[in-house]
Write a structure and sequence with these properties.
The protein is an alpha/beta fold. The protein contains 14 helices and nine strands. Bound molecules: fe (ii) ion (FE2). Fe (ii) ion binds near residues 199, 203, 268 and 282. It comes from Methanoculleus receptaculi.
Length: about 375
């Protein structure tokens, strides 16, 4: 695994994106250029209360694009929310979608697009390349720096009946444009800044060690790790600093470009299972799993993990194992506890491992983990 074949065929997909202060205010112009005359503006209550949905709405109004707001989206968006949003899209005769928020509204928006052209249940599209009809145009305005749903071909939807997270992966889910503006990040509470920042770091680490990595994704993954390791601790101390917020947004952008093309690994497969069963915060699950996943994977990608450890731990006097470096970085951000402190119980581990084992993210994990080995990682993280 450390001796990769650099000549292996790889492709790289990325949406158009605009980054910088004021990018949010371009939403109307881009919606208009994409032919939208009536938009479903997908957001959530928190983002709406912070004023960012209204700011995007003003931009749409200036471009004479009418819109309806759909804000019935919760963290770990449920399939029922997608279906409800698609019903509003249909009844309001919309012809385009603008998503404003973190990963949840953006994933929900992608699902609404898929349902609106197909008329089918969103859960029917689980898996890779199952979306055959092109969804309506989608503009994304991320208000967190972590999910990269504004760039990725992924939508993660919670099947509430089956208590599992369903991964829908298709090039058709790559948004038409992402407007990366640091201003909306300033209203994120500390915990969300930390959790989403660690999600970005997890994307970069898993993409860098992924079996589907390439010289192009490596470039983005390493830059994301470097940026996160400096900007995330600093932004927690200075949450209103726009330059620092922008650095975390760039970290998320680089991580998104990396994992959109190299995919992820065991931490995400296991985190999706936890989110499905317990409805837990995605970034926090990654934070509590990363150390044990790195330990389990280390032998299969030691050179790459050593490089990650050297970047994050560059100020340490003595060499530390990469798993320890990452764990200590995460603890330095104030993340404490274990999976059991989130309410996870040992009796659920076999069911969690069962779900993680069939998650598409596991396919690119550097080591070939068995169900039993996944159970052992959960046990260590408990
Ligand atoms: Fe993630």
């Amino acid at each position: 695994m450390n001796q990769r074949n650099r000549l292996e065929l790889r492709k790289f997909v990325a949406p158009e994106f605009v980054c910088g202060q004021g990018a949010l205010r371009l939403a109307g112009r881009y919606a208009h250029n994409l032919g939208m005359r009536r938009v479903l503006l997908v957001t959530d209550a928190g983002v709406r209360a912070a004023g960012w949905a209204d700011a995007v709405g003003e931009s749409l109004a200036r471009a004479e694009v009418s819109f309806t707001i759909f804000d019935s989206v919760t963290p770990n968006p449920r399939s029922s929310e997608v279906m409800a949003g698609a019903e509003v899209y249909r009844s309001e005769d919309c012809n385009g979608i603008v998503a404003v928020g973190g990963g949840s509204p953006m994933d929900c928006a992608k699902g609404i697009g898929v349902v609106s052209v197909s008329g089918r249940d969103i859960l029917a599209f689980e898996g890779v390349d199952r979306v055959s009809e092109l969804p309506p145009p989608l503009v994304c305005v991320p208000t967190t720096a972590g999910s990269s749903a504004d760039l990725s071909p992924f939508a993660i939807i919670r099947d509430e009946m089956g208590r599992r997270k369903v991964a829908i992966i298709s090039k058709a889910l790559v948004p038409d444009i992402s407007l990366l503006d640091p201003e909306p990040l300033t209203t994120m509470p500390r915990e969300l800044t930390v959790d989403t920042g660690i999600d970005a770091l997890s994307h970069a680490i898993e993409a860098y060690v992924s079996n589907a990595s390439s010289p192009i994704t490596d470039l983005h993954a390493l830059e994301a790790i470097r940026l996160t390791s400096t900007a995330l601790p600093a932004v927690i101390r200075s949450p209103d600093d726009l330059n620092l917020r922008f650095s975390t947004l760039l970290a998320s952008l680089h991580a998104g470009l990396a994992f959109s093309n190299a995919s992820l690994g065991a931490a995400h497969a296991m985190s999706h299972a936890l989110g499905g069963v317990y409805d837990l915060a995605h970034g926090r699950c990654n934070a509590l799993l990363l150390e044990d996943v790195i330990e389990a994977n280390y032998e299969a990608a030691s050179t790459r993990y050593d490089r990650i450890g050297a970047i994050i731990g560059r100020e340490q006097d003595e060499w530390m194992a990469p798993a320890e470096v990452v764990a200590s970085f995460i603890r330095s951000l104030g993340v404490a506890g274990t999976l059991s402190s989130l309410g996870v119980t040992g009796d659920m581990i076999p069911a969690l491992a069962e779900r993680a084992y069939v998650d598409p993210c596991l396919a690119t994990n550097p080591s070939d983990l068995s169900r039993e080995e996944i159970e052992e990682i959960y046990e260590r993280a408990l």
